[in-house]
Amino acid sequence: MTLIKTFAEGDEVVGFYLVKKAEMKQTNTTPPKDYFDFVLADSSGEIPAKLWDASAVDKETYFPMMLVKVRGLVQMYRDKPQMRINRIRKSTEEDGYALTDFIRSAPIQPADLVNMIKQTAAGIQDSEYRSIVEFCIRKVEDRLMHYPAAKGMHHAYFAGLAYHICRMLELGEFVAKQRPFLNRDLIKAGIILHDIAKPEEMNAEYGIVTDYSMKGKLIGHISLAANWIIEAAIALGLDPSHEKIVILQHLVLSHHNLGEWGSPVQPQTPEAVALHYIDTLDAKLQAVEDAIDSTPDSEDWTPPLRIIENKPIYRMRT
Amino acid sequence: MTLIKTFAEGDEVVGFYLVKKAEMKQTNTTPPKDYFDFVLADSSGEIPAKLWDASAVDKETYFPMMLVKVRGLVQMYRDKPQMRINRIRKSTEEDGYALTDFIRSAPIQPADLVNMIKQTAAGIQDSEYRSIVEFCIRKVEDRLMHYPAAKGMHHAYFAGLAYHICRMLELGEFVAKQRPFLNRDLIKAGIILHDIAKPEEMNAEYGIVTDYSMKGKLIGHISLAANWIIEAAIALGLDPSHEKIVILQHLVLSHHNLGEWGSPVQPQTPEAVALHYIDTLDAKLQAVEDAIDSTPDSEDWTPPLRIIENKPIYRMRT
Amino acid sequence: MTLIKTFAEGDEVVGFYLVKKAEMKQTNTTPPKDYFDFVLADSSGEIPAKLWDASAVDKETYFPMMLVKVRGLVQMYRDKPQMRINRIRKSTEEDGYALTDFIRSAPIQPADLVNMIKQTAAGIQDSEYRSIVEFCIRKVEDRLMHYPAAKGMHHAYFAGLAYHICRMLELGEFVAKQRPFLNRDLIKAGIILHDIAKPEEMNAEYGIVTDYSMKGKLIGHISLAANWIIEAAIALGLDPSHEKIVILQHLVLSHHNLGEWGSPVQPQTPEAVALHYIDTLDAKLQAVEDAIDSTPDSEDWTPPLRIIENKPIYRMRT
Amino acid sequence: MTLIKTFAEGDEVVGFYLVKKAEMKQTNTTPPKDYFDFVLADSSGEIPAKLWDASAVDKETYFPMMLVKVRGLVQMYRDKPQMRINRIRKSTEEDGYALTDFIRSAPIQPADLVNMIKQTAAGIQDSEYRSIVEFCIRKVEDRLMHYPAAKGMHHAYFAGLAYHICRMLELGEFVAKQRPFLNRDLIKAGIILHDIAKPEEMNAEYGIVTDYSMKGKLIGHISLAANWIIEAAIALGLDPSHEKIVILQHLVLSHHNLGEWGSPVQPQTPEAVALHYIDTLDAKLQAVEDAIDSTPDSEDWTPPLRIIENKPIYRMRT
Amino acid sequence: MTLIKTFAEGDEVVGFYLVKKAEMKQTNTTPPKDYFDFVLADSSGEIPAKLWDASAVDKETYFPMMLVKVRGLVQMYRDKPQMRINRIRKSTEEDGYALTDFIRSAPIQPADLVNMIKQTAAGIQDSEYRSIVEFCIRKVEDRLMHYPAAKGMHHAYFAGLAYHICRMLELGEFVAKQRPFLNRDLIKAGIILHDIAKPEEMNAEYGIVTDYSMKGKLIGHISLAANWIIEAAIALGLDPSHEKIVILQHLVLSHHNLGEWGSPVQPQTPEAVALHYIDTLDAKLQAVEDAIDSTPDSEDWTPPLRIIENKPIYRMRT
Amino acid sequence: MTLIKTFAEGDEVVGFYLVKKAEMKQTNTTPPKDYFDFVLADSSGEIPAKLWDASAVDKETYFPMMLVKVRGLVQMYRDKPQMRINRIRKSTEEDGYALTDFIRSAPIQPADLVNMIKQTAAGIQDSEYRSIVEFCIRKVEDRLMHYPAAKGMHHAYFAGLAYHICRMLELGEFVAKQRPFLNRDLIKAGIILHDIAKPEEMNAEYGIVTDYSMKGKLIGHISLAANWIIEAAIALGLDPSHEKIVILQHLVLSHHNLGEWGSPVQPQTPEAVALHYIDTLDAKLQAVEDAIDSTPDSEDWTPPLRIIENKPIYRMRT
């Protein structure tokens, strides 16, 4: 099947795609006519698509997050490709496609990612740090199987959050070896906990954030994770004002580095400094890598990336 | 006794004062001689004072936060008054002075302030809000009797924190009456809780902050108060993710308004918006009032005040 | 009559509404057809509306700020409700509606507001402050009956400016009582004068600002009010460089607090500090209250409000 | 006489200098001794100087802004030259020196500068602009003979303000010729009026600003000049809201360009844009020229200049 | 022929215009029809234009940067004028129009501008500065005949870059005369070199920048010009670390003044300070002059200009 | 020998130390007496020291960067330790100490560091990148043996620059392996070149920067390195506008990320993004590690570190 990323003007396309948006609209002719304004997607990208003259039956048939088979023509509209749909039908079980074939995902199986996180947690030597980290993982373990790390900045896809944590754990392991004055338990704990409350901050399905939750807006994932550390301490019979709790909360609270980026305190332990810059390095490079992957091969430049001050990336060929 | 605020060049002064600082130093003569570099204070202000030729006995006699009787001469040094001490002795019980006579304090008795806070808490109608507020007050009740509200910006004196809360409660009461769409319970709860963890953030004695605590630097009073709300919820058998907990935490977390001022989230409930601006109005006006009070009558302008962008205040006479 | 705020998809609506915008457009069919692109409004909100196939007579009939009776259908277009008009006619006198029934207004009669302002001015004890304030009120008295306080930030409705002044006077009265070191005459004078030149800065009708005037752009309401104080002084035979004139001008000039918000000097008298924060508290809380009022009951969140750093407000139900 | 700018370590100096500061201090020896802490100056620069063992008579003899003859030794103290005074006496009339020989001044006679300004004003063709400009000049004509343009940023010397205006008039004349779409009357009027109220904003003697006046702090020279334009209009029988008054006030109000630099409105007429950048060009280049002039020839770099973001200037030799 | 700047609603227009954009689109009727979405331009401005019912032949006939003769009707669409084309044909040689008649250009012939730049370069007295400047001019001499100075901020038209340099040379000549401490060779060299690499940074045709080049984005015109100075030095047998090379590079590198405006170092020689402010004065005033020129006479205000903080300019009539 | 870092009040100390500063001063007694104001240092830190009653011979004996043997007493002065020297003599060869024993250095031998850098360069596979990198290394090879990486922010010690490069090369190697889409040659080249011109920007001896050079201030190390790349290209017969030259220059020019941090362009290739964040991670963590190393064991907090927004670091004991 042709990947959306490779569509060119004039292509006649037949294939299975995911319906990402499906809105009924009316033309402004007299009398007005109903048409469908779709966004179709596969793992390589997405494209707007129009079904003119939608029938009353169509109206009751097509909804977001459904798989469809379409035949259509790729045209340019305001310098962007869009598809004019000639035929469309729902995908059936016999077609043999699964929804997850069509969405963007981390390149490693979610189960393997979550496993790596849990094994790393189990390897934390200090039993109190370990217990608190495991308590927090349990709060989101199932959602770690599919949550993205963010709405759009970086790792914004299926299991992106778990993938981000795992790559950071690799980098953290290297940095802790290169600089033995860093406490390895805290590097691990900080990496696992820093974004652990993101699934509580955002609502997401199939790796796509639809919006922020009420708690997400009023508390934010940073303070939510701080709350969980207190809950964990109390559940485990630890004094919530013990130095270890302070140190763990500090890692989470300070990991955005500056107040204007959401951290109420700035990094003031060696591991907190390390955590922020490991997080930054991984997020920026992943965003760059993903942008290059999803830019058509014919383009020398990716679109501007918000995460690097809205600059595009140049792809060298040689 | 002459108030320090009224000292003029050439005055011969006799009186009781508080030793705020007492450092032994040496002159750079040969041979060097010991002398005492004091800061003396009363409730109206403070003044540097030198005791030249300090004896070995003196060295073991004078320490900070002690009351002394001095006789000395007021001189100008780099455009600022300073005292040359001619005679000094420790104050004795017979002199009849108490340390609290010499430190700057809120104009209302601490016990009355704490009482007003507790009664306001008791008047919160929603029993869950009330219980959480009372739980947090219990954590700091004794320290509320004397803690300042800040290190230097505003209300930086004995019982300044409790005084700040009480004046805000008066203002909050007025605003809630003027705008009935505001929830009065939340206005009260927000005002009492917003700075409740300051005594955990700073170390203070006699209304003077000596430094920030480890927890104060790594967590900050905003997140510490958020922690206490979680502790209170668990202690009271409430679900820590209940909407009421979210709403209370939001009030505390957002009360500095912007990220660069330390708030991880911005005010997004009516009461959170009200809380921030009530806090601001009270802090700024109190700082202005206190600056005018402690500026010598001969001056038209106070010193620059950090809390209002480092501007001085002009005192109109007419 | 159904309020616009309560319209839901699919509603068949009949009622009287205000035409806020009325533009003739053409479809891009061949041949193109004329249609009317309206915005209809009542005191609860507004909605776009289309009259397809507008006749030549229609073209000469419907204009902005006219009342009409319409029958139409509420539809969704790009996630927002819009009305398809089936029938429309001009409202006649017999229908018994007045334009002011359909525009958003302060909740208190304009005449009562202006009266309160004039009585407060009359109560200023210093005769020179009083005369200057009354001179300035006379410049805009008739426009105070209907001008909004701003184009969109806050109090952007009929008599919003007078309402803003009156609520501030109530709050100023409380603050001046709570802190007797403040000069009550100056609090009153500052509140009345601070925005007094807004009607000269903006052009407005029916409480809606259409644009800024030439003077508004080149001088601004702050310096215009400063001009009026000089004019008043000269007219009253006072020396324009007298300290009282300086103090009054300072209140007006500094009330936006910072240079980047339009104030050429920063507040440096106690009353100037008070004025800025009273203004801020009233403007923010009114904007929050109005946003909640005009948000459909079905929504938990208001739209983002520019006046509070573009944050939305959460409406708690319990 | 040796210029202060050329003093080198170890020089034995005899000459006449101006006493810029003269403070009595005491050593911290036992018993303490009185000594004089002077700042001596001539037109090339200034130097700290100590008179150890000042007698009781000395105390009553030396005051700021007095001319003295001294004999002394140039020493280094904390990397800066300072003079140890061995002999000192007051200058007498027979010595034949005038105070103005010792202070830094504009390179053109003040009377000539003021004359040029008045002739330029007389050459403004529009009689209303001309009358207003002349009205404002009359307010400060005598102070234009000696006032500096600023406290320290640029043109901070005797008649510096008049000199700044005159150089700007030359530059303005060129720009208006190069770009005939600019109104030459307004260019002249704007240049003369833009800083005309500086003598009311600051207190200065002998070209040195001692401090800002009460009006200077509470109103500022920008709004003070705006006031004078209103006064002029009324005195001349012009309507203070006439377009010409608006245009003149706009020139003055906007000449600092940005709110954070003190302008309540931004330049929005061609002449206002020109005025700001002519002012900027002249102030920066004069500050650079003066810094090079007063830097010892042995130095490659001037000290950092606040007016150009605290950068020093490199002096190329070739 | 009627200038586009003077088109009014309802005008029937016949004339020759330049096709600036030409996009084939389809109506959303059933069946969809092809139409042409044009932008037509002349030297006074531009206007969108629609050709409904474009034929298959039309599709292959009209392309950007072609001259056409049209007959059409001026209509309003969303408050902006647009043309409905009734007849259209390609311009032929017999019509006698050249493309350059239709594009915005500097008011002086490009050849004269380039000549003035070359003669000024030839007049630089220091032979090393002269040779380097001439080396760099040779790199872009042909492109100086038509390149604009920027994409949109200022001098964005045919030969705008050469025009900008020439006006700056006039102003630089005046400033260097007014302030003889400035090195005239360096003023000339700095003005000619400061933007000399712009043609390498941007791609432009007919005075219109289409986009930035790869080098423009990755290196920028400032560092590109610095590169050329090194190339010139080596080609001329000069040591690339000679003080003169440093001084020339400094002029170019610092001419944007601040890091956030693209300069890696800030001006630290007298000529570098002069260069930045001469550049600023010329760019801002030209932008203001051009905005007034291209604003319809009926308008009192130009559109907002990005180059002066997005403010519009008021055009005084008197 | 006792390390300076471990000095406590009252210690009687005998040992060898490095004279870092040595200034002759005079007491302000009558007659004034000469004394020596020293700063003594060893590899663990530094301390001010006074030699009262310095003899005429002493004056000619002690100079900066000399080794001395002292006997002295540690006292507190303004809360900081300082030494009163009782005996002092120059160190002789027999004492057996070398200057490099007393200065702070990278923990790896400079020769090994430079070797690693050269071997990495030799391992770059693309011969053009390799030749340019080797050309630039040759420019500074001898200075790489001892230059610090900065004046004070990070790696401010003997061979700190080479050490910084080597640790970055290790980290870069890991990151390039973790993310194979990165070009390893460019990662290596970028790391070696990014600060390669620092020895041209600053003057340094024994790992201590004394000041910035003329070139350093007027051009800066970023543009100096860009110059060297052009020189290298020309020397190697490559076209200075070849894409590879652009890519290498881009790495260097963009490595400070933002304009306000000195980069004229922002990172826009994958390797440029990686380079900036690898640089940041290494610099921050090294600064933290060094601060902990040089903080006395008795302290829980390091001093504030400019490199992490002036925050101190907390040292956890457990």
TrEMBL record, chains A, B, C, D, E, F:
Its EC number is 3.1.-.-. Keywords: Hydrolase. SMART domains: HDc (SM00471). InterPro entries: HD/PDEase_dom, HD_domain, YhaM_exoribonuc/phosphodiest. The keyword Hydrolase applies. Residues 157-293 form the HD/PDEase domain. GO terms for biological process: rRNA 3'-end processing. GO terms for molecular function: hydrolase activity. This is 3'-5' exoribonuclease YhaM. It comes from Paenibacillus solanacearum.
